[in-house]
Amino acid sequence: MTPPRVCVLGSLNMDIIVRAERLPMPGETVLGRGYNATPGGKGANQALAASRLGAIVTLIGSVGDDPHGAKLKGVLAAEGIDLRHVRTQPAPPEGQPTGLGLITVAEGAGGENTIVVAAGANAAVRPEDVRAAVDAITGCDCLLLQLELPMQAVLEAVRLAASAPGGRRPIILNASPARQLPLELLKHVDVIVVNRAEAQVLTGMDQHTDPARLAFRVAEFGPPTVVLTLGPQGSVLCHRGRPKRIPTIRVTAIDTVGAGDAFAGALAAGWSTVRHAIAARSQDEHRLLDAALVRASVAGALATTRKGAIPAMPTASEVDARVGDLAGAT
Fold first, then answer.
1. CA distance 58 to 84
2. In what order do the strands lie in the sheet with 235-239?
């Protein structure tokens, strides 16, 4: 079988990760137990996750002309990711430095985290940069998006995918960081992936609302497939108005950084077979969708068992070894 082609438009950051016993309260200082710098950013994380799950991946984005940018590109290139459309910005003051993710991980709370992102070079991605990558977008099996880049760049990618010669390209949106979204974006999205907090911002509903109700409300904005992730409780799928709980495997979580990105990247890697079944209205549509989500769920869970984001992304063999744990569970 030909490997699926996934095009990712997204951020590239260097993550500065501090580990502490717990997360600080507002105004409080907590002593950390050390720190390290690892490549990350939602775009880079999801691109690498999709690549390790068997996809041929092209990444569109931007880094600074600095050691962080060079390291990011080196790590991603070593994984076989096509970086022809990752621009290198000139050094300040003419340009922007590589983006930074400032992350605190609570080691005593199952790896829960807080993240602040300084966009840096990510903020310099323009619609014309996206248009320069039109062949990658219109030739892919799936376009994967997040919200750490300027909205005009995201919308341009959606327009190109929606008007691709030979038929529109499927679009998966991981609606993170949480924000209100333009209807032009939502009307073209095939799959939207959100957690509770992101669903709350999008819908205005309390995040503690029943997950199925939250997923139904998100679906009212237009996407035919909604995935509401629930961490160790798995996820809720709402596809064509039918809700379903998707389980996950049990793991000992030490760091949740990048778990959602592993989920989204794995889902994008598996969307090719689902796409064709949906287009054909095949009886296998729901079975293939369930299988893709189970694989994504396993990938997300496994990512919590290692420290960091990119270093934690599981391989296809690691995911396949645990998928059997959920056989028949959906």
1. 8
2. 82-89, 56-64, 5-9, 142-145, 171-174, 191-195, 225-229, 235-239, 242-246
Euclidean distance between CA atoms 264 and 268, whole angstroms: 6
Q: Please, which residues bridge with residue 156 across strands?
A: none
Of the candidates 104, 167, 115, the one whose C-alpha atom is nearest the C-alpha of residue 146 is 115
Burial grade of 281 (CB within 10 A; 0-12, 13-18, 19 or more): exposed
Residue 163, token pair as written in the block: 């008007």
In contact, 246 and 293? CB cutoff 8 Å: yes
**pLDDT tens digits for range 302-326:** 999 998 889 899 999 999 999 998 8
* Residue 129 known to be catalytic: no
> Which residue among 261, 284, 290, 320 is the active-site one?
261
Q: What is the pTM of this model?
A: 0.93
What span, in angstroms and rounded, lies between the C-alpha atoms of 19 and 109?
Answer: 11
CATH placement of domain 5-11+41-91+122-326: 3.40.1190.20
Domain positions in the chain: 5-11+41-91+122-326
